[in-house]
Write a structure and sequence with these properties.
7 helices, transferase, single chain, 2 domains, 274 residues, binds N-(5'-phosphopyridoxyl)-D-alanine, D-amino Acid Aminotransferase, Chain A, domain 2
Length: 274
């Protein structure tokens, strides 16, 4: 069983394969995806790969134009891991070249790791989140390796006992440090519209389809931290957190402090599709 990959070679995860002059290592000059595999079946893999190519395009990084070949290497990593329930991390960087800010003339580097996924903390009973200023750059639609503001905000939340930090820019909620945020008000699901300020979540796409299936209005509009605190329900989603109910925002209990009926219905449907 092998659980890592670097530039065409399947390797052990602790093998030293990244040279010092690697741009992901030195500059964070690259993009990534996290894909979850359930019982051997990758969930929405084509959507993840599409987003990876779009992120790469946005930073002028050229991944193998033969998408089928690229996808096959991802599938081979899954196969070789010997795991059936796993998270696959895929990273593409601008390659290996002596450190210089300008783009090098060299092939991109591709690395992958496969890890069994853990059960989701607070997935059923609900989690608490902290509101935090969104200190990221203007192009958060790119799934860039540069995650310093996300890391700092998430750590601040963790140190105060919260699961996630919910980011606020210009008085409006954008998203979590590694999740999409939704509120439920008067039986409608409300989430921030897609823009350069948020990542277009793959789980968000799935939730939108599920809402349609359940005939629950899915409204894409901005909302404030106060509207979040006064919402009937709050939940967050991501590949790794799936659909996680939020029962407390900045020490304010949401509604009666238990996961609401819309969140529960979505979770139930999500279970069906995965
Ligand atoms: N993060 N917003 C941000 C900033 C994210 O980093 C993520 C996912 C999401 C949710 O996207 P998706 O539903 O496609 O996973 C939203 C991954 C899981 C990570 O960085 O580990």
């Amino acid at each position: 069983m092998i659980s890592a990959y670097f530039n065409g070679k399947f390797v052990e995860p602790n093998e030293s394969v990244i040279p010092i002059d690697e741009r992901g290592h030195q500059f964070g000059d690259g993009v990534y995806e996290v894909i979850r595999i359930y019982e051997g079946k990758p969930f929405m893999i084509d959507e993840h790969l599409e987003r990876l190519y779009q992120s790469a395009d946005a930073i002028k990084l050229r991944i193998d134009p033969n998408r089928d070949a690229f996808k096959n290497s991802v599938l081979e990593m899954i196969e070789r891991s010997g795991l059936t329930n796993l998270d696959l991390y895929v990273q593409v960087t601008r390659g290996m070249a002596p450190r210089n800010h300008l783009f090098p003339e060299c092939p991109v580097s591709v690395s992958m790791t496969a890890k069994p996924f853990r059960s989701i903390p607070f997935g059923d009973k609900g989690a608490s989140v902290l509101l935090h200023p969104d200190e990221r750059w203007a192009n958060c639609y790119i799934k860039s390796l540069n995650l310093l503001p996300n890391i700092l905000a998430k750590q601040a939340a963790y140190e105060e006992g919260y699961l996630e930090a919910i980011l606020v820019r210009d008085g409006k909620v954008t998203e979590g440090t590694s999740s999409t945020v939704y509120i439920v008000k008067d039986s409608s699901i409300i989430t921030t519209p897609l823009s350069k300020h948020i990542l277009s979540g793959i789980t968000r796409m799935a939730v939108k389809n599920l809402a349609e299936h359940l005939s629950i209005p899915f409204v894409e509009k901005q909302f404030t931290p106060d509207e979040m605190i006064q919402a009937d329900e709050v939940f967050i989603t991501s590949t790794t957190l799936e659909i996680t109910p939020i029962i407390c925002v900045d020490n304010n209990q949401i509604n009666d402090g238990t996961p609401g009926s819309v969140t529960k219905a979505l979770k139930e449907q999500f279970k069906q599709i995965i």
